[in-house]
Records
---
Amino acid sequence: MWSLLGGVVVWRSQRLWMLGGNVIIVVAGLWGLCFLLFTQGGWVPLVPPLLAFLLSGTSVLAYKTVYQTYHDPLTGLANRRSLERKLQHLNHQNLNQCSELVAVLFIDVNRFKSINDGLGHQAGDYLLITLSQRLQQHLDSSQHLGRVGGDEFAIWLKPVKDKQEVVRFAEKLQQVLSQPLYWQGQEIYTTVTVGISFEETGKNFHGPELLRYADIAMHKAKALNSSRPQIFEPGMDTQAVQRWHLETDLRLGLAQKEFQLYYQPIISLKTGKIAGFEALVRWNSKTRGFISPGAFIPVAEETGLIVPLGEWILTEACRQIREWHERFPRNPALIMSVNLSGRQFSQPNLVKQIKTILDSAGIEGDRLKLEITESMMMNDVEAAISLLNRLKGLGLRLSIDDFGTGYSSLSYLHRFPVDTLKVDKSFVGRMEDGKDSHKYFQIVRTIISLGHNLDLDVIAEGIETEGQMKVLESLNCEFGQGYLFSRPLSSENAEALLAEENHSLL
Ligand code: C2E
Ligand code: MG
Ligand code: MG
């Protein structure tokens, strides 16, 4: 009886202090019982039950420690360590036999964090337990399931005869896991992303790598926004490693405020004066140095980091234009252009966010111009037009950036409520010399007259020479931007430029 008690007490004690407390209570109770009986003239042996209690307790403790090393306490499934060990072991078993194909499926629960944050950790635990049970119901004895991360499961299967069969199996699991589940009367919908890796057992087989490859493939599927299982391909790992480093640094950079806005003047070609600025983000990374947006905006887009970064850019640009507006009052007033990324454009609360930013900066909507690209609008044209109209409702100005380089449809252009076309620098830069310069000149001329015919004003980007400026002036292009006038400047230098211009006006 005392052995049994020792086992139960140790097994059920979840924490060290609980274990210590329970052991002290039991030992003190036993000693008290013996002492009480002894004072009453009775006698029960103390040492044998104490030994039985401690021995069985120690054995259970040892078993529990080993069990917890290889199992996930929430779902009771094998953990990453156990899965890696089994995969490695698999190879030792097979070394003397002919090799066979092994597959690993890496399953990640989408939006798990928002379920956990929104409905609470208990709901999150319930979701994980239910999903693990559903997975277990669909596996046979040659398929081994484990929980390898917070919201990540992995399955390894062998022997695999047909890779496509594994893909179909993964698709079936995706379907099973996307069935709704119920938590306190609420329906929870969830989906999963799956990455798959294959490898033959043999000398070069390395189990833990197989798990890592499936993980990389899963992340690739996420990056591509793909709902289909993604198979690992060679080369994905180096790409992924570089990208992850960049992503980690980006997150850190955002937290440590390593970003800075530069401002490139936009010049009126009629008056030669500054009409406004385009805000261009720069990353001054502690580890990587000075990085231009072309290198990190795509990753920020892919990872969603562009949303907080974009919000900061808008806030900072509006604050800056307000400051300059107060220090250098002008007529017409300066306009700040801010680039908007695709991800920001599909942000459901964009209009509200911009309204809040304008209000807190204390500026009118028409001080801010958003630069969007044609490709961003072509996914769902009607939705894009409605969003642009709501943005116009805030008084904002809108311009189409890099016009002529993306997917566009001229049949929609007249329906977009935009104010400006920006002629891409790839056309402007080639219209003066080079093989097809005449053709580029015609493209620029056509874009400018297209803009004017639709009552839009036109900004030519990337003006680097006097010659280009003269040509653009002769085509009645209203505004120009480029190294000829100024490179993008830090806020201090842009301010100095404004002060200089102000001085010469006086
Ligand atoms: P963009 O919006 O077309 O910006 C103009 C780019 O042309 C800037 O590059 C600018 O430095 C460069 N540029 C200006 N004048 C000349 C010139 O005379 N010659 C040449 N060769 N280049 C010139 P940057 O700053 O590297 O930005 C590249 C792109 O990154 C931008 O193209 C924009 O699409 C994106 N980007 C920059 N800042 C932001 C931002 O704050 N948010 C978002 N979403 N995207 C941004
Ligand atoms: Mg731009
Ligand atoms: Mg551009």
---
Amino acid sequence: MEKMIIHGGAPLRGTVTLSGSKNAALPIMMASLLTSEPLVLSNVPRLRDVKTAMDLLTQLGVAARWIDDHRVELHAAKVTSHEASYELVKTMRASFVVLGPLLARTGRARVSTPGGCAIGARPVNLHIAGIRALGSKIQFRHGYVEAHAEKLTGGRIWLDSPSVGATENILMAAVTARGRTVIENAAREPEVQDLARVLVAMGAKISGAGTHVIEIEGVERLHGAEHEVIPDRIEAGSMMAAAAITGGDVTITNAPIEHLEAVATKLREAGVTVEANGKGVRIARNNGLKPVELRTLPYPGFPTDLQAQMMAMLTQADGSSVITETIFENRFMHAQELARMGADILMKGPTAVVRGPSKLSGAPVMATDLRASMGLIIAGLAAEHTTELSRIYHLDRGYEALDAKLSSLGARIERAQEQ
Ligand code: EPZ
């Protein structure tokens, strides 16, 4: 196992280019099941989760191969299995969105339920209710969801909450269903919009992606397509917080600023310069940080996937920041680790009060999820001496070449073998 060693204190300066979005790429890869023709995707990040998705598709009979560094061809000429095993789904929950496309293509699917997660319970009831509303029979047996439908039929679905994964699963199930499907209170995330774009390129009829109501007119079949995955807005926000905490000056050449409104607003409130710059964005900080209040919300609200990184940054603000996590019930695991580095964080239910500025001092730390790990790296960049982050397999699930990118900006960071 590897760990990351961060020697704090160097301001980040220079330019960096984002990788493709993990959370867009994963469901889009599953869409390859919907057609017998090849789906060619570019700007696919080289991540552990992408490898897991390739493994899952391969097990289902899809010919999955890298064409070059960031291009993948997925060809589901025949689907030879109906099962997503517990082994795979437990390592990557996003595997559960295979249910919709697998069922749509073959009429049946057996997919392990994901179980609990480090950041919250994360049930899949909304996915199931949606797939049922399209006429599928569903049974729960031996830890698996077994779905069966000769032909799915369009339906009207109102989601209790705008779940990203449920919207994606239902969308992929509905594109070849008989008739019209309406998803109300749908997720509006850019990743859902990117999935809808690739489905339309494959011949699907979808309107309203990016709004609360998505309408799908089922078509007989989908065909192959080529698609470029959007840049990763969460990687962008992470780099922005890293640049800000170190008092740096960084330009992200391909930051999707239109997807980062809430993040840019909070950074500006905190006294950080955020300027749109051609196709990218420049982040700079010369003065002290100011405290802010923020609440995580579904898109276009502030993303839960950037809460840990903002918390780390706000340890350096002059005053009390208030962070409320409304999406996941257990996503403050990083707070205790930040406290071990000297942060002053008061927890009360879903709210954390971060009192700054605290002098951070490097320490051995570890995290239980991807974004928490990134939060600790950000704290390490501003801490005195050395921070050692263990369990970095979490980071490798979702940040491509993070150490190389941060090093190119002047950070002193390296990987080492865990003793
Ligand atoms: C996606 O997860 C992302 N993952 C998550 O990113 C992200 O944190 C989350 O959306 C919210 O933005 C991928 O896209 C692969 P949800 P997802 O369904 O789809 C509840 C990361 O670090 N809910 O929108 O699983 C659920 O418990 C990851 O990259 C139900 O109650 O999130 C949560 O409280 C972590 N029933 C809320 O909705 C359901 O059936 C939002 O979850 C489904 C969800």
